[in-house]
Amino acid sequence: MESQITEKALKLMEVTDWNLCNHCLGRNFSKLVEGEDNKYRGKYIAQILSEENYGSLNGKSCYICGNIFDYVEDGVIEKITSNINPVEFETFLVGSRVSPEILDREEKIHKSLELDVENIKKEINREIGKKLSIQLQKEVDFGYPDIVIMIDFVNDKIGIQINPIFIEGRYKKLIRGIPQTKWPCRKCRGKGCPNCDYTGKLYSESVEELVSIIPLQLFSGSDSKFHGAGREDIDVKMLGNGRPFVLEIKDPLIRNLDLNDLETKINEYANGKVEVSNLKFTGRKQKAMIKNSSTDTYKVYRALVETSDEIKEEELDKLSLLDVINQRTPIRVSHRRADKIRIRKVREISAKIISPSTFEMIVECEGGLYIKELISSDEGRTSPSVAKILGKKALCVQLDVLEVNI
Questions:
Q1: Of 143, 148, 186, 252, whose CB is crowded by the most CB atoms within 10 A?
Q2: C-alpha torsion angle, residues 108, 112, 113, 117 (rounded to 10)
Q3: How would residue 1 be classed by pLDDT, with cut points 50, 70 and 90?
Q4: How far is it, in rounded angstroms, from Cα 214 to Cα 47?
Q5: How would DSSP label each residue in 15-52?
Q6: Is a pLDDT exceeding 90 seen at residue 132?
Q7: Which pTM value belongs to this model?
Q8: How far apart are CA 253 and CA 137, in angstroms?
Q9: Going by C-beta distance under 8 Å and a sequence separation of 6 or more, which residues neighbour residue 12?
Q10: What is the C-alpha separation between 272 and 282, in angstroms, rounded?
């Protein structure tokens, strides 16, 4: 084995004219020589060559890296720590950018000597990561770190990418007249104009804003995004145990807050319009699951229905015929939704008369079923419908979501 190492080392020295640092020498033997790191391996190989009188490293600028590891060992850590404040984090990952010339020189050596080893960037990232972990008492995370530290050796810059945090919870919307998310003004498209009183918004408030403003301030984030498990119409309340949501806070300088205290502050700010509960930190995957869960849920609605003629109890019994529903995209949302027929199932339905031409209906159904159109038929686009079964016009005059289950 030692003769094989010596043979490869001499070939490497011939290519580089003995101009190598211990890191770049050792890296090319990482699979042949055991040791704590490439620097150790390089010293070991250099010692073998010297003892066998083949020659010594000449101490000049490294042919491969140009002595970049001197900066890695002596200067870069201090520069990173000065750039990293005041970011709060527990886990991190290091990335780097080195000049194409370095990568090209290294690749040519690997090909000419048929070496299958890691490239220089991996070693740089690992060595910086080890030093930072010890100095800062933080952990390296290769999955989803709190921050990514990027060292640009070409332009001598340090960049800090702060990954977002995700907070999962449920919200109730206790009043009518506010949308789930911000609606840009249709005339100015959010820029601000006389039509929207220069707010850029069609509605002055939204669930998104009432829920996100306080967390955005307390986490010192740059922006936020609200991800709900479906949405209710502006004129619909969201009651029961609330609708699941994930709040994404981008570039948070602070990552650790008491979520019980945050929940209280959000609810105080929302002032009875919206209420959040069960807040907990979650991951990026949960955001995608929440956003895509709408049709996989079942929901319970309470609808107040007015009919064109007087209604009788025996007529309401016919509503049990509502089972599999074929629903073409409703007219009211056809400008923003694909025109297609959706098949949804009504799981359970009950109704009671409130007045001669008004009744209350409780519907449990699959997510994605438009309840207002289930009642009115939407000019025949929903079939069967309450109106068709009753044989008279029916209109949903009030709607509440009582339950959202995922």
A1: 252
A2: 40
A3: low
A4: 62
A5: HHTT---HHHHHHTTTTTS-SSSHHHHHHHHHHHHHHT
A6: yes
A7: 0.87
A8: 18
A9: 20, 25, 28, 109, 113
A10: 26
Distance CA 93, CA 87 (A): 14
Q: What is the distance between the alpha carbons of residues 43 and 26, in angstroms, rounded to a whole number?
A: 7
Angle formed by the axes of helices 38-51 and 2-16, nearest 10°: 90
Q: What would the mean pLDDT of 68-74 be, rounded to a whole number?
A: 87
| Cα gap 25→18, rounded to integer Å | 10
For residue 383, what is the enclosing H or E element? strand 382-383
Instruction: Report residue 69: phi and psi, to 5°.
Output: -70, -20
Backbone φ and ψ for 175, nearest 5 degrees, come out as: -130, 160
Question: Is the pLDDT score of 286 beyond 80?
Answer: yes
Average pLDDT of 234-254?
96
Q: What is the pLDDT of residue 294?
A: 61
Looking at the structure, give the CATH architecture of the domain made up of residues 64-162.
Answer: 2-Layer Sandwich (3.30)
Q: How far apart are CA 15 and CA 13, in angstroms?
A: 5
- Percentage of the chain modeled with pLDDT above 90: 75
Q: Where do the domains of the chain lie?
A: 1-62, 64-162, 165-292, 295-405
Output the pLDDT for position 120: 95
Q: Are the beta carbons of 302 and 361 closer than 8 angstroms?
A: yes
Identify the pLDDT of residue 402.
97
Taking 3-state DSSP, the helix, strand and coil percentages for the chain, each rounded to the nearest 5, stand at 35, 30, 35
Annotate 216-234 with b (16+ C-beta within 10 A) or e (fewer). Answer: bebbebeebebbbbbbbbe
Q: 171, 275 in Cβ contact below 8 A?
A: yes
Q: CATH for 165-292, among 2.40.50.140, 3.40.50.720, 3.40.630.30, 3.30.70.2510? A: 3.30.70.2510
CATH code that applies to domain 295-405: 3.30.70.3190
Structure tokens, 294: 């709408």
| 233 catalytically annotated | yes
Residue in 233, 251, 261, 378 annotated catalytic: 233
Distance from C-alpha of 325 to C-alpha of 338, rounded to nearest angstrom: 18
pLDDT reported for residue 217: 98
CA 199, CA 148: separation in Å to the nearest integer?
35
- Encoded tokens for 372: 């207002």
Q: What is the mean pLDDT of residues 257-285?
A: 96
